[in-house]
Amino acid sequence: MVNNVRKPFGYEPIIKREDLKKGAKRKREEVGDWKKALLNVWRLVDEQRGLLITVLFLVFASSGLSLLGPFLIGRTIDNFIIPMKTDGLAMQIGLLLAIYTGTSLTMYFQNFWMVGIAQNTVYKLRSGLFNHLQKLPVSFFDKRQHGELMSRMTNDIENISQTLNSSFIQVFSSILTLGGTLAVMLYLSPLLTVLTMTIVPVMFIAMRWITRRTGILFKEQQRAIGELNGMIEETISGQRIVKAFSQEERMKEEFAAKSDRLKRTGFWALTYSGFIPKVMNMLNNAAFAIVAGIGGLLALRGDGVVTIGTIVVFAEYARQFTRPLNDLANQFNTVLSAIAGAERVFSIMGEDVERDEAEANGDIQLKGNVEFRNVSFGYAPETDGYTVEDVSLSVKAGETAALLGATGAGKTTLVQLIARFYEADKGTILIDGIPIDELPRATLRSQTAFVLQDPFLFESTVRENIRYGKLDATDAEIEEAAKKANAHEFISRLEEGYDTLLTADGSEISQGQKQLLSIARAFVADPVLLLLDEATSSIDTVTELEIQAALEKLMEGRTSFVIAHRLNTVKKADIIYVMDQGKLIESGSQSELIAQKGMYYMMLQQSKL
Ligand SMILES: Nc1ncnc2c1ncn2[C@@H]1O[C@H](COP(=O)(O)OP(=O)(O)OP(=O)(O)O)[C@@H](O)[C@H]1O
Q1: Does domain 370-605 have CATH number 3.40.50.300?
Q2: Ligand 1 nearest atom to the CA of residue 379, by list position
Q3: What is the pTM of this model?
Q4: Ligand 1: does its nearest atom lie under 6 Å from the Cβ of 387?
């Protein structure tokens, strides 16, 4: 492995020759994607065409005015200063003042409106991405690190915002200024123009050398930021686990490694991009020396082909010529990282959303008869086989089915299929005789409630957390639900009652109380179908009894699937299903299963319930 950069300050070089070659190859492969991403961003920008045209007009005006300024200065030197003529000088200076004021004003307004366009575009992009995320299936989130997704919502969009804010105008005005300057320079002195141009190939070679490296590094930096964010998010949300398993040191090491990668990419990215102004400055001075030296010699001949005014103008134009090149080179990286960001954002936007083949044909009121006909499902069936295999079952409206089985048997997966979090690969699930994929998800989910082992709470008040079950529930309905869920009493004891603020992990209330809140949430939703995952964690007996009683009340008159861990729940179920490695191996009432002397019987014997 050959590194082509030395190692200053202990910063290991991270670009390898292979990377540069790969970089070039990757660029060619990714052409389709970045073109699509740019086109998509452009569509959003183009929605504000009126403002955009105004901005472009102002860019034209400011570029024209900034060409006119030096030209008039040259004229002033040749026509007023050198001949020491004062007649009309005041007017000439007034004109110059007007031109420079005009340049500033046009620049101010083009920036003002461009920032507006950029912010509107980014607003639409951000909302578009967020709305799209809401429509993506659960399987999409299974495969992604949440922090990495958050990084796309924030960092990548911020990069696009930065580029639109400044680079868009800069690139456009640089191109205009370049063209205009070249034209005026050629008009003033083709010879000096050709001489000034000798620095351009040097500039291109230097820039290419730098930007090939910075391009790779900035992409790498974005990736490193995404990974680091992912890790920070995981470590914070899983903090208890980290502490419980004393993994702080390992997390620190892992974080240090990731952070070090970011530091090194950042160091090299900024080091290389820092070369740009230095190189440009050097070339600028070289151009100035050429113009002043050779121009001076020509002016001394006194044949009027090159005047002192022309040299002054040229020196200014030579600067004006390299500045947009410099700007373009500087913008190159910002634009590159914005394009990389846009590619990532639009790759999510291109992910398939949960589609409903069945359009909502009025609100169907479900009764709650659930039937599985030879249902199979796998998270990755090609490689890992089926997690739920050839399951057939039937639960009548209002009945309670208890699901039993060893850990990993597929109980949670089966229950999630009922809410269409995943689609069955084979077979059919029917609700009230309607195949589930013919029911709009919204209809199905609005009549289904989940009560999970570890309920998720939002960072909001107790009241709002319960209201999540039915957004238009009145305060009275919320209290009523809390009473039914045996949660009212503990809520009333909280300092601010229903208005107590909860944090996202609900650490200010106990695990059992969290369960009660989620039961209250289910009561408010008043669902036809209940999907329950009984808590396995030990909860104090009083709360445990309250939860049991609340759940029993909740299940009354509703079709319930309970992933059961308590003998009591199993006894009260209308039907018990025992799962093993994705298959239903036993089903029937408590007494029937005992008589079978199968897995259920064994579990009873071993007091696994
Ligand atoms: N999102 C997922 N992606 C891939 N595989 C998964 C996913 N969720 C679960 N699995 C796998 O599917 C299998 C069944 O998991 P499932 O959670 O359905 O079992 P379970 O019977 O509910 O277990 P437990 O009682 O421990 O909750 C397990 O091997 C698990 O690793």
Answers
A1: yes
A2: 4
A3: 0.71
A4: yes
